[in-house]
Amino acid sequence: MDFDLTEEQRLLQDSVARLLTDRYGFEQRKGFMASSEGWSRDIWAQYAELGLLGLPFAEEEGGFGGSHVETMLVAEQLGKALALEPWIPTVVIGGGFLRAGAEAGLRAELVPRIAAGELMLAFAHTERQSRYDLNDVATTAKRDGSTWVINGRKGMVVHGDSAGKLVVTARTAGGQRDARGIGVFLVDATGPGVTRRGYRTVDGQRAAEVEFSGARAEAVLGNPEDGLPLVDQVVDETIVALAAEAVGCMQVAHDMTIDYMKTRKQFDRPIASFQALQHRAADMLVQLEQARSMSYFAAMGVEERDPAERRRNMASVKAQIGRSARFVGQQSIQLHGGIAMTMEYAAGHYFKRLTVNDGMFGDADHWIRFLANAGGLVQAA
Amino acid sequence: MELRFSEAERAFRQEVRDFIAKELPKETRDRMIAGKSPTKQMVVDWQRKLNAKGWAVPEWPREWGGPDWTLGMRYIFREELQMAPAPQPLAFNTNMCGPVIAEFGTEEQKQRFLPRMANLDDWWCQGFSEPGAGSDLAGLKTRAVKQGDHYIVNGQKTWTTLAQHADWIFLLVRTDPAAKKQEGISFLLCDMKTPGITVRPIITIEGGHEVNEVFFDDVKVPVENLVGEENRGWDCAKFLLGNERFGQARVGASRERIRRLKAIASTESLDGGRPLMEDPDFARKVTEIEVELRALEMTVMRVIATESKRKDKKPDPATSVLKIKGTEIQQMCSELLMKAAGPYAWVDGDPEAEGSNDIDVAPDWAFGLAGVYFNWRKQSIYGGSNEIQRNIMAKAFLGL
């Protein structure tokens, strides 16, 4: 039992923190958000410099060789800064698919480009009817000679507008909600048959509606007849990053709230002197610490070899993180009062990101329901 | 970062589990599964078995019989006892007074009291709270006046758990009423057979007799029973409270309750004949607790990891998180267990008595579950109420 970081891990954490402290203040972030892409290419180049874009790839493939702990450390820092760049879609999700589903030749071609910051990826899986069900896939992929042809429509493709390539789930066989018969394909986002409409999401990030009409896949990732286990694995790995990002957001939202309580005066004294507010702040801290514990657990629980058990682990993570994020986010607004309702003030932006973070790949309610149906976490006596 | 227990610790867990399986009497286990407190004799017999094994006093220094376990091993030991379920070594002896004597006591005090404490030859109880000093413990008023080689103690203690079994009581008394609140307090050891002591039962809402009022009327306590320096008893009190490292997280106890709950809810059926556990609302409530319990378990692991490296003995404010969440989870477990029993949870009876369900009016497993629910409301009150824990957090963590 040891929660200490290695020297390298501490260095990584510090260097990301330093970059973001120097270059990613709230005002600077506003500037990035207002730019045409909605995030910063300059900062992206800095990420490349620090090794963040090659983080999960093997060193011999041009990566950094990081484990889930490294993913957690970086994501937490990005969460603290509310970073807008497509790090999770490119490195964690796209990277996850490449690591677990791509041929070595494809990785040799793509990893150096990703690590250098030249290629962004996005995951096109959500459809109008699918909500959080990863097996609900109506988009089709039909074999045509040696390639696959994709038809269908994907929504809320996070950072889909800036991605060079899309990881697309498409049905190769079976009915719309069958677990089997789902393939995962790599598609050139700028190629023929792909139409994208980018937009901003409420948390200041970017997403796209993507239409595929006869788009040809560049590669198959994993087994085209049974790709859902691969999707589940990558989503579980992504939950490590989402959990840590949420913890970073919660930490800042909580710190801001405490600072504000100490300086804001009403009735001739700091509002921090009121016990009702102190207790609420203490409850926020309880929720934050429970979330942090589960973020650590995520980095361990995702390594479980049995996929069903791993999924249960990650469901419990997502459920706790979502519950905590809701409480900390809502209460950070409440304890600030009116100021946190304004667009100019940072607290609301943390709240918005926490809200979207909870929803990504299923909110707390979704995963509680899943766990309840899966028999929970504790065996009956 | 290594978030799993070591191989040695896992082997230790198995050793503890095997020992309990072999040595814990079935009647003790059955009684505890039913949610009743073990009898005095059960607690004494069990602690003597643990003591013979060298496991009765995990928190004590080696020279006084402590097994020199890591914090992780101490946690595993307690968790296994909770999950069995088996009685814990009597906290007043082993977690509270024993460590204080080992730290602050004289050599004579150590030799006189510690071995008997470890073997539960003497049953100790705690004389801290008073009618006017609950959450504000330092406001205590029980007076001790030195006369020759005795202190004369007058006053009243309350919420004294299991004083009806006790041979000795450790007391916080006021020896200097003129000093500031915390500075005039001393830590005394008092034989319960001393003339002038009256124990009056307090019956709690479920009908149980766990706690008592203890009255002191010109009770003579020899000066050699003072622990540490006169007027420095608050140091002992703080040390004692700081020993409560895992708070009242009681992860193992909650896990045992959830196992039980799920077993009951899988056989007990709803109106429609389906098992209660298949009701989505009920299943979701259970799952919510399971998720919180897993997070709490990881928080305990974090506290163990940081505490293992700390040199000072100050209480870690993170224990407040453990206390708040741990008791909330236990209270939810007790509530869901009661609800799982439906109307049969309502049968009243003496929760201490054996064979309370002799007249066979309810399924055995359902008997007393409402009583446990009512009784466990105490958890968010005792050991520093959950509101006091929030005050501690506001001060220590948040600087408010």
Automatic annotation (TrEMBL), chain A:
UniProt GO MF annotations: acyl-CoA dehydrogenase activity; flavin adenine dinucleotide binding
Domain called Acyl-CoA dehydrogenase/oxidase C-terminal: residue spans: 226-362
Name under which the protein is recorded: Pimeloyl-CoA dehydrogenase small subunit
Family, as annotated: Belongs to the acyl-CoA dehydrogenase family.
Cofactor needs: FAD
Record-linked Gene3D superfamilies: Acyl-CoA dehydrogenase/oxidase, N-terminal domain (1.10.540.10), Butyryl-CoA Dehydrogenase, subunit A, domain 2 (2.40.110.10), Butyryl-CoA Dehydrogenase, subunit A, domain 3 (1.20.140.10)
Acyl-CoA dehydrogenase/oxidase N-terminal domain residues: 6-118
Coiled coil: none
Domain of life of the source: Bacteria
Record's keyword terms, sorted: FAD, Flavoprotein, Oxidoreductase
Domain Acyl-CoA oxidase/dehydrogenase middle: 122-211
UniProtKB/TrEMBL annotation, chain B:
Keyword field: FAD, Flavoprotein, Oxidoreductase
Residues in the signal sequence: none
Gene Ontology cellular component annotations, sorted alphabetically: plasma membrane
Domain of life: Bacteria
Residues in Acyl-CoA dehydrogenase/oxidase N-terminal domain copies: 6-119
Acyl-CoA oxidase/dehydrogenase middle domain span: 125-219
Cited SUPFAM superfamilies: Acyl-CoA dehydrogenase C-terminal domain-like (SSF47203), Acyl-CoA dehydrogenase NM domain-like (SSF56645)
GO molecular function: flavin adenine dinucleotide binding; oxidoreductase activity, acting on the CH-CH group of donors
Acyl-CoA dehydrogenase/oxidase C-terminal domain location: 231-397
Listed cofactors: FAD
Family per similarity comment: Belongs to the acyl-CoA dehydrogenase family.
Name of the protein in question: Pimeloyl-CoA dehydrogenase large subunit
